[in-house]
Amino acid sequence: MRTMKAIQIHRFGAEDVMQLDTDVPVPEVGPREILIKCAASGINHSDLFIRENGNIHIGPGDLPLILGREMAGVVAEIGEAVTEFKPGQRVVAMPAPQTRATGLPGGKEYTGCYAEYVLARPQDMRVVPDGVDMVTAAATAWSWLTAWYVLEAAKIKAGDRALIHAGGSALGTAAIQLAKHVGAMVMTTAGSAEKCARVKELGADVAVNYHEADFVDAVPGFTDGRGLDVIVDVIAGEVLVKSLTQLAPGGRLIALGSLSGGSRELPPELPGGRTARRFSITSHLMEYTRSMEKLDEFFALIESGKFKVIVDKVFPLAEAAAAHRYIEERRNFGKIVLTV
To answer: Is pTM beyond 0.85 here?
Structure first.
């Protein structure tokens, strides 16, 4: 039996539940599966939540578990029925949604990416062009696809006044650039003067330091008193409640995540044609299996210099616990990546 190194959790809890195991079986390759030698794996807030408590799909019966939902690497082996990829190709993969949709492999939600080898299917993957390095590729997939499809769900368009909360997060840094790309005006929130300055460098028109001011006070000036056309909220709790009051007639709020740990409850309906809905990138990718193809466009724009994928810090695989702690402490601006 071939074995590999991987970060596994054997129980749910704080960062120290993650351990580097060196005798994890290398996944077996099925007819329509691809084995990828991992070079880099992006860390997402959902990894932290699963590590601590699991989720509705992952419980004690799924332990031990390898965390991680996105990675970049080189194709090592292909199944006998695979024609879309070949060994040696540089690829990015997001195995989680498709794995969960089929219940394969192992019946778990996904094959984790904090590992030397990762199993994926052709629809989980895209080729990484030569002008994009592996760390950047690993940092792009989850955050940029989420940002794009969230904004698409909000029907953002040129001239809209948009509020993107947590502008210094990996999702926020992507959403700011994408919203500006379609011609919207962007207001964002961040947790320090330095982060506010950096989100403005990415294109934000207004940045509010939430430790020093209430974003609600900045909305009238930003929107000429009309209210916001689009709000992307990842905070929940009190921030979500306040955000709902700032929608213009016909305004659209999209909620995902709960960085505050607060309530994610949305009202059943709002007056004046306003709407509020939740979004899940996992559910979206499960339903629209060709959504990964959007990465080709992103990579081309990254190569051209139009988009900047912000990677704050890179940790080696063995320091995954330190990487999670860094994010827990809200020290990051942009993405945190593990290298394998």
So the answer is: yes
